[in-house]
Write a structure and sequence with these properties.
The protein is of the alpha/beta class. The chain has 17 helices and eleven strands. Strands 3-2-1-4-5-6 form a six-stranded parallel beta sheet, with helices on both faces. The longest helix is centred in the middle third of the chain and has 24 residues. The radius of gyration is 25 Å and the shape is elongated.
Amino acid sequence: MTTSAAPLPLAGVRVLEFTHMVMGPTCGMILADLGAEVIKVEPPGGDKTRKLPGLGIGFFRAFNRNKKSVVIDIATDEGRETAAELAGECDVVLENFRPGLMASFGLDYETLSKKYPRLIYVTHKGFLPGPYENRLALDEVVQMMGGLSYMTGPIGRPLRAGTSVNDIMGGMFGAIGVLAALRERELTGKGQEVQSALFENCVFLSSQHMQQYLMTGEPPPPMPSRVSAWSVYDVFTLAENEQLFIGAVSDKQFATLCKVLERPDLLQQPGFGDNASRVAVRPQLLAQLGEILLHHRVEELSPKLEAAGIPYAPIVRPDQLADDPHLKASGGLVPMEIHEDGMTEVVLLPLLMGGRRPGVRSALPSVGQHTAEVLASLQSRATS
């Protein structure tokens, strides 16, 4: 565990979380990492996210650290009453269930805010209010609707991004909304509802391509078919079928690359004199560089490119990141205790605040681990 003597920025903020899967838990984790007390409400038996197979197997561990677990059955009258009372002791409520579910339980913003006007309530949705708002959404659904899958795959073969980009980004925007609402409450004394939505996240990601169309009148081609602004900006196959991305985005960088490859003669070839000219003959240039790079090994060329200041990157799988020297040295990959399985390593928020990295302060909670502790305050208040 990592600890810090100085209080974290959200110390004293109490959050009640009704979430599952990725989007809502991401929001809660960000707030928890920044110091908030986040109370995760789980149904009897625990959040089903804990037991997802396949590509979902890591969801719970990745997005639920630094939280407390309380089991409340909000499908019962008693459970709903308890949850509503607990909401009154919190600054923020988070939820990401299907449209209308929390309202059916009387745990929606409209109901709770009548009794607790200072409450900040974050709803993580598929869509913001509008014609689509009652649709059910998944990350893949909105990637198809929001332009991302089209831009990622080759023509005729839309591909989703290889991770839950909109779910995670939706949680991030939910957390940003909490921070803004807390600040506004300091000025007004009133809470508010914050809504973050998958579709709008994805459209925000695609907005640069929308502007490209609005400025040129031409629909942007998918990334595999794009017209690059730079002549050398691609993945190359090197010796022994190793791959390396190389980007030379200025005339100076191209000249430096030619020097690193010991091919200064490329600078003298017709059409290779400046970036605009090279872009016009890009297929020929890339084919020529490809032939040259087939005789270089990644482990030998990489340090030369780094020393010369040429942007480059090996093609890294997620499993290889578990041993990434920079992640480890920078403190971005740290141990976390798991009650059932000992220890694991988790990736921290990509933040450095005043020289400190918000880290892991407690073990991943077991199902209902903090139920007695958290609900004790309600019981004491009822008897006082």
